Amino acid sequence: MKLTILGGGGFRVPLVYGALLQDHAEGRVTHVVLHDLDAGRLSAVTRVLAEQAAGVPDAPEVSATTDLDDALRGADFVFSAIRVGGLEGRANDERVALAEGVLGQETVGAGGIAYGLRTVPVAVDIARRVARLAPDAWVINFTNPAGLVTEAMSRHLGDRVIGICDSPVGLGRRIARVLGVENPAEAWIDYVGLNHLGWVRGLRVAGRDELPRLLADPDLLGSFEEGKLFGADWLSSLGAIPNEYLHYYYFNREAVRAYQQAEKTRGAFLHDQQARFYAEMANPHAPALTVWDRTRAEREATYMAENRETAGAGERDEDDLSGGYEKVALALMRAIARDERTTLILNVRNQRTLSVLDTDAVIEVPCLVDANGAHPVTVDPLPDHASGLVCAVKAVEREVLAAADSGSRATAVKAFALHPLVDSVNVARRLVEGYTEVHPGLAYLR
Predict the structure, then answer these.
(1) I need a surface site. Which of 18, 61, 93, 175 has the fewest CB within 10 A?
(2) pTM, whole model, 2 decimals?
(3) 295 Cβ partners below 8 Å, 6+ apart?
């Protein structure tokens, strides 16, 4: 079975390959094709994978190419993890937004809109090529903003594109752990929303909802990441546990202030860190896997550091420093390729799951997965405060898609202006001006 990884020179690709190395069952991935526009990054990552595979019998074959069409032909699965504009683009997204006093995070607020406007045209081109060159392939999208990009690709691939994210998985795992659930895989997580905009409303073990016990115990609530971020009182008021990215909404002023005062934005930090990694990898004698492991540990430990500092949450727990999206990707591939039925929280088309959104809107929700793909599970309606936020952000996503399709600068301004975290039409206009000045990829807006 052939897996093509788009963004194959990306820093987190070894996480995916490492997961594949642990899969020895029949019907597993036997050939991995890495595609990237940067041959140097491809070379560096290929070296890391080679060291990972050392001594592993029947490790999947790895090849690399800068030719997208060659990479896609014959693929059974396509894993998309591209970053249009690179980390320099992310740093610019943050800088332009913060100069206007609004959030520049890569998936939330102004930064997410800018990233989406750059990425959607590229993602649509990829979707069209997949439909032409590998029509039977399943596309697993991790490219951010994941929900928005998945929806853009679904207009050309239908339900054969599925978005994944590790945030809901990590959140469910932390809740299960603090509640003393011995096997988190046996817990049913009632989670619903959009990507980076969802809430856990229940966690059932053997038919019993254990979440009320957590919400009623301030000590338990304060013992894990989200409790430290949001505070026990706020979580009790919500009656749910929000995805960590909702900290940008519920504590927006504090988050913006913390990012403005930080020595470096997250994008700038990662840009410098990864530049060091790839520069070190230019030395053919560098121990590739050791260098990668060291860099990854630093990256994970500093994740959402400004938010945790604002909340006084301290350092991340050691158990939260391991990734998760690669495990979701592998579980998804297994379920489809082998008809190993499972339940995963995924980004898929709504169908009739959330009545406040239309059937084509991509949402993040538990899905039953089998050989025919991912099928969203019926869920209870969201409370008004969550429903309103979901509808507002989905409306913004639709304006981003319209702007990317039409090239309309006015529609791009509308997307920014309608976002809950951008509070001024004039700010929206200046954001579009600022982003088009620093991003060649937005030259299509006119």
Answers:
(1) 61
(2) 0.94
(3) 11, 273, 274, 276, 277
